[in-house]
Amino acid sequence: AFFQSVNARTSGFNSLPIRDMANETLFILMVLMFIGASPGSCGGGVKTTTIATLAVVGISRFRGKHHPQIFGRSLSQASINKAVSVVLISAFIVCSGVMLLLIAQLGDLPHPQSRGEFLELFFELVSAFGTVGLSTGATESLTPAGKVIIVCTMFIGRLGPLVTAVAMSRSLTSTYYYPEETIMVG
Predict the structure, then answer these.
(1) What's the CA gap between 14 and 122, in Å, rounded?
(2) 20 to 30 A Cα–Cα from 8, which one of 104, 120, 158, 184?
(3) CA-based angle 89:1:70, to the nearest 5?
(4) With contact defined as beta carbons under 8 Å apart, do 47 and 35 qualify?
(5) For residue 32, what are the contacts with CB-CB under 8 A and spacing of at least 6?
């Protein structure tokens, strides 16, 4: 179990056939692949420190603290903003990729005829985003459009979602700011 959990975040080796695993196991592997490795490594994903930052912020807010702290240090607002941005951009990339992959692979196929394929395609795309290399076996049956989607997702995952978003966006410097408004959340 430890070997599989580490492989889902970095190397992509598998000692068990991924295709034969239970849905719950595939889901846990997908979460691990989305989180990915630690910063400074060659692994993909949103990185362990990003998820740790969000967890610390969540726990701090739940306890009523306005300044998240861990190990005798406070987290900077810039780090928190970057972590939120990385996770939101990554989630958008994965959701968009899954939608495009479903369209490319299944087209107008009704749901009863495509049973089980959603999870397999979702797994393939998250594996591509995390640059892991694990597969349920769906890779070989991808259409040319599906393969292009997987390749693009691998490329974005390798560069990193924040780098990709910055490269694709225009830099506009705002000289004015709107007044703040408090909204109901949750």
Answers:
(1) 18
(2) 104
(3) 50
(4) yes
(5) 5, 8, 9
**181: its two tokens:** 């408004």
β-pairing, 69-70 vs 73-74, is: antiparallel
Global pTM?
A: 0.84
In whole angstroms, what is the distance from residue 57 CA to residue 78 CA? 13
**Tens of pLDDT along the chain (186 residues)?**
888 888 887 777 778 888 888 999 999 999 999 998 888 777 788 999 999 999 999 999 999 888 898 888 889 998 898 899 889 999 999 999 999 999 999 888 887 888 878 999 999 999 999 988 888 888 888 999 999 999 999 998 888 777 766 666 666 666 777 788 777 776
CA atoms within 13 A on the CB side of 74: 6
Structure tokens at 10: 């970095």
